[in-house]
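Q: Here's a chain of 378 amino acids. Please give me its 3D structure as tokens.
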Amino acid sequence: MNKNVETARRLADLIVASGEHSADMLYITRLNLPDAFVYLGLPEEKMAIVSDLEYDRAQVNAPGYLKVCNQNEFVAPGAKTVDLLKLLHNKYALQGFRVPYDFPVGLAAQLRNVGIECFVSSGSFFPQRNIKDDYEISCIRQAMKINATAMQKAFETIANCSVDKDNRLLLDGEVFTSERLRSVIDSTLAAHDAVGSGTIAAGGVQSSMPHHRGEGALYAHTPIVIDIFPRMNSNGYYGDLTRTVVKGQAPEIVQNAFEAVKIVRDECKAMTRAGVAGSVPYDHAMQRLTELGFPTGSNAKGFYGFFHGLGHGVGLEIHESPRLSRNVKHLLQPGEVVTVEPGVYYPEWGGIRLEDIVVVRSNGCDCLTDVPTFLEIK
């Protein structure tokens, strides 16, 4: 959107989405509602317009700055969303709506058909989302405590496994699989009112593919990458945590890779502070992993080494700004929450990834992760 056009017109911010599925909607309204509703941000007022079904709950849970309205205050029951928006557009003498990039294209077309313009935000709809306040940090900290509980349960379950003659892990007389390990993790999260979606429990050579969820039998003496990123049902905030473990004796190459990644993770955490460009710790990780004997490149088998970003923001989305990665010029700011997660991956033997979450401060960072870092489980 042309900024000159934006400032010359009387526009209102408009989101039509559910709090469960739109991070922007949940951020501005703090209403974690399952069905789509309307947020209208006027220069003089912020409003959430909801159905009869959600009106009472929304009034109780809305922040003080948000006015909660029943949609029947504006239109008859059963009216279409476009009719409600047309009425709001006229009532508040608007010249259009500023909408987020993921605004429903069908609804935008309906608005255009009745002569109402939608101006798509040229960047982040709420750039202030990058900076977490005390409430948001407490939500992420809560998610990380539950995450730690689930990770510890994973460690205990692997420890309780035996090993058969083919080096497969066995639990209760049955082959222990990636799928069963994920079930242990996700059920632990569910018991603490969090949802694990996409949990990774990848063993052996599958661990050399960073986002491989893992499938089939898990084996002793090979790395198992466990990456857990739960969403809290109560507030919508995420946690993110990765550890890599080996049941039994780790081969020398795996031990060396683990130590290298651990060293680099801790060095990069130490250099993460306000005023540092996102590319700086990433470049350090790439250089140091190469120096420690784990270069990055590609061959006929694909990519190997450290071939993903060092970190990403975490909040109401599991991947959000800012980024710690190649060519990122953004200077970190106090209150931003990012992961620090170097890794190395080689199709010959597997991968290692270690991930913590930190809050950026003016003179360093605070780590929100309280899970030990070790390799072998006996």
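Q: Can you summarize the key feature?
A: The chain has nine helices and 24 strands.
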